[in-house]
Amino acid sequence: MNYIQGQTALDEEEKEGLLISTITTRAELDEFEQLNIESAIEWTLHKKLKKEQLLSESFVKKLHQKMYGNIWKWAGKFRKSEKNIGVNYYLISTTLKILLEDCLFWIDNKVYEPEVIAIRLKHRLVSIHCFPNGNGRHSRLMADLNRIDPLIAFAQS
Ligand SMILES: Nc1ncnc2c1ncn2[C@@H]1O[C@H](COP(=O)(O)OP(=O)(O)O)[C@@H](O)[C@H]1O
Ligand SMILES: [Mg+2]
């Protein structure tokens, strides 16, 4: 089959959990996801979260849900199967807890510069790979929230 560039059809596996049945191509999916992510970013702008709230399992899930909840059934839910990247799926919650506690420790004890903390958080988040998809974009937004909002994330304890 020939497709215009960006018009690659999604296969059945890729469509698993898709809430919008009219999305049939990669380009359409990218566009819908981007719109959903932009609304999530707007949502974060109105939040005033303390670092303990930001660095919690419930916020990690909530942010993923806000980013992809209009598109994917599994948004905001940890994956339940293995990927070729990431920890064993049944270790996601405990591994994430260790990361979030480490991150709070780095902040409270000024172990690294804020930029370095954000990068370390992003790197470890994506290597845990909490969700079936969207982990790259989600981890970058988590890092941005921890870096751009230092007054909110770091100052109010
Ligand atoms: N082998 C790997 N080692 C480290 N990072 C990886 C590896 N494979 C994929 N990634 C990271 O995982 C992310 C892709 O995960 P994915 O859940 O598909 O997120 P997204 O859909 O937002 O791109 C990318 O940011 C990529 O850098
Ligand atoms: Mg992906």
Unreliable spans: 149-157
CATH superfamily label: Fido-like domain
The CATH topology: Fic-like fold
What CATH architecture do you see?
Orthogonal Bundle
**Estimated structural class:** mainly alpha
Q: In CATH's first tier, which class applies?
A: Mainly Alpha
**Strand runs, count:** 0
Distance between the termini: 57 Å
How many domains, as an integer? 1
List keywords for this structure.
single chain; 157 residues; mainly alpha; Fic-like fold; 8 helices; 59% helix; globular; binds adenosine-5'-diphosphate; binds magnesium ion
Description:
The chain is 59% helix and 0% strand. The C terminus is likely disordered. It has one domain: Fic-like fold. The relative contact order is 0.14. The longest helix is centred in the first third of the chain and has 20 residues. With 157 residues, the protein is mainly α. Helix 2 packs across helix 4, helix 5 runs antiparallel to helix 6 and helix 6 packs antiparallel against helix 7. The chain binds adenosine-5'-diphosphate (ADP) and magnesium ion. The site of adenosine-5'-diphosphate has 7 residues, from helix 7.
Provide a compact summary of the structure.
This protein has 157 residues and is an all-alpha fold. The protein contains eight helices and no strands.
Helix and strand arrangement:
Elements (H helix, E strand, L loop, with lengths): L11 H4 L10 H20 L5 H4 L2 H12 L23 H17 L5 H15 L6 H14 L1 H6 L2
Helix pairs in contact: 2-4, 5-6, 6-7
The structure holds adenosine-5'-diphosphate (ADP) and magnesium ion (MG).
Adenosine-5'-diphosphate binds next to helix 7.
